[in-house]
Structures are given as structure tokens and as C-alpha cells.
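In response to the reviewer comment on reproducibility (Comment 2.3), we provide here a single inverse folding case reported in full, input and output, so that an independent group could reproduce the run without further information from us. The C-alpha cells appear first.
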């Protein structure tokens, strides 16, 4: 509303003067306040759209977006934007210790678009890694009866460590040594390798789908990919249902009150499909 008013301020002022109601025209101070309000609220509108998406991962964006909001609002506040200063205070109050929220931290770290870049506190990264490591071990240990047997079976069945029977001839000793070394690999070692590999890989661009990225590496980081499937999801919001109600209000009107329920459902589905395209 404020943005449209500010863009058409000259036309609005002219129309009010022509109608003889120039007394309600906005003076320069009010126009300056409107401009500052638009600048302060614009980032919040963009963040709202980001976390309201239905067809992309949004949970991992929570920590990066809160950091961006606080940073942008702080910059505007230092430039004299009073509303931005109040918003900074509210952000610090409402988003305090948000990086310590493990589900949000895990989703941000497991998202190949962000990883370490999402965090301001480096200690939080190490804590998140430690919890993820324990969770990976629990995932592997839940496959069998004991941790020792599971780790051996899991490693031997992994595509990366699949081995053949001991060879013959001159290679017999080397093959036997390799098989023994693979049997000695523990569950913790396997999980450490996957977690380190994920940390060292380069981040992908923001327009890429993190779930597609994990799908291509599922055979390489099988244990960590299970955690990624768990935490890379959408934030639960009422936006889709509210959007559907709005579409239904446009479809079913006083002049179209005789539409059959199946036709209304088909039209709503078609509208949603076209908007996704």
C-alpha cells in the first residue's frame, strides 16, 4: 500500500488539489517517513515470500534469512531510519539464539547452498556437526542388533567399499590385508568421512535444488543423506490454504453461484497448476 502510494504521490497530490482537499496532502516530512517505512519493510516482504513457497526447500533458509534481516535493518538504522531501528530490536528479541535451534541449524548446514555460510557463530557449527554425527551413528546402529556387527555389515555393503573374495597368486596377501582393514573400519569412521566430505565440498548456487544435489550423492554419503531427507523440508505455514481460499472466492461469485463442486475443484486445480508453471 505504501509503495503504491509513494510511486503515485504526484498524481495523488494533484488529484487532491483539484478536488479542493489539499489539506490532506502529505507534506515532505510524512513523505520521508513513508519512504523510510518502505525501505525498512521491503526486506521483510521478500523474506515472507521466501518462506511461503510450496515447491522448494524453505526450512534451511530460516537462519540465513534472519541474519540478513538483522543486518539490512541495522544498516538502515545507522542511516537514520527510525522504523528499521525498532525492527532490529524486535529481530534480536524474537530470533535470539536461533542458531542453537538444532533442527534449523541442521537443515541450514545440510543445505549445499549454505553450509557454513549460514552461521555467524563458528562454535554453533561444531555443535551442530557433533549432533549430526551422533544422529548418523544412531541411524546406522538402528539397522542391526549391535553397533559392531552393523558397522561391519554396513561398510561391506556400501557401494564404495564393496569387495570381492580374497584373490589368489601374488595378490593374495594384499587382498587379504585390504579386506581386514575394511572390516576394522568403525561406524564412527564412516560417518566422520561423510560429514567431512560434505563440509569440504563447494556450495552450489542458490537457484539449484538441494534435494536433487543430495540425490546424486546418496550412494556416496548414504548415512548423511538420510539426515538430509529428514531436515530439508518446507516450513509449515497457512499460506497455501489461504491462497486457495482466495482463489475460491474469485471463482465462486454471485454471478457464478450455480457451478458444480467438481467444476469448482477442477478450476482451482487448473489455476494452481498454471501459477506453478
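Designed residues, in position order:
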Amino acid at each position: 500500500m505504501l509503495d503504491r502510494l509513494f510511486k503515485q504521490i504526484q498524481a495523488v497530490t494533484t488529484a487532491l488539489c483539484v478536488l479542493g482537499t489539499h489539506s490532506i496532502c502529505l507534506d515532505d516530512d510524512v513523505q520521508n517517513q513513508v519512504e523510510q517505512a518502505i525501505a525498512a519493510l521491503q526486506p521483510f516482504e521478500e523474506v515472507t515470500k521466501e518462506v511461503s513457497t510450496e515447491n522448494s526447500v524453505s526450512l534451511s533458509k530460516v537462519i540465513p534469512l534472519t541474519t540478513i534481516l538483522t543486518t539490512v535493518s541495522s544498516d538502515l538504522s545507522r542511516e537514520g531510519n527510525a522504523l528499521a531501528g525498532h525492527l532490529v530490536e524486535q529481530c534480536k528479541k524474537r530470533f535470539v539464539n536461533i542458531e542453537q535451534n538444532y533442527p534449523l541449524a541442521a537443515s541450514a548446514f545440510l543445505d549445499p547452498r549454505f553450509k557454513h555460510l549460514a552461521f555467524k557463530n563458528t562454535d554453533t557449527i561444531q555443535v551442530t556437526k557433533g549432533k549430526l554425527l551422533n544422529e548418523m551413528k544412531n541411524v546406522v546402529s538402528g539397522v542391526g542388533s549391535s553397533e559392531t556387527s552393523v558397522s561391519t555389515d554396513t561398510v561391506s555393503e556400501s557401494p564404495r567399499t564393496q569387495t570381492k573374495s580374497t584373490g589368489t597368486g601374488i595378490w593374495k596377501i594384499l587382498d587379504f590385508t585390504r579386506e581386514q582393514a575394511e572390516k576394522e573400519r568403525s561406524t564412527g569412521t564412516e560417518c566422520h568421512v561423510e560429514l567431512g566430505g560434505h563440509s569440504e565440498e563447494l556450495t552450489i548456487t542458490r537457484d539449484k535444488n538441494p534435494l536433487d544435489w543430495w540425490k546424486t550423492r546418496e550412494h556416496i554419503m548414504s548415512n548423511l543423506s538420510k539426515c538430509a531427507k529428514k531436515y530439508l523440508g518446507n516450513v509449515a505455514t497457512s499460506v497455501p490454504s489461504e491462497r486457495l481460499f482466495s482463489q475460491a472466492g474469485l471463482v465462486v461469485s454471485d454471478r457464478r453461484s450455480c457451478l458444480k463442486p467438481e467444476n469448482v475443484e477442477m478450476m482451482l486445480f487448473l489455476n494452481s497448476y498454471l501459477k506453478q508453471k
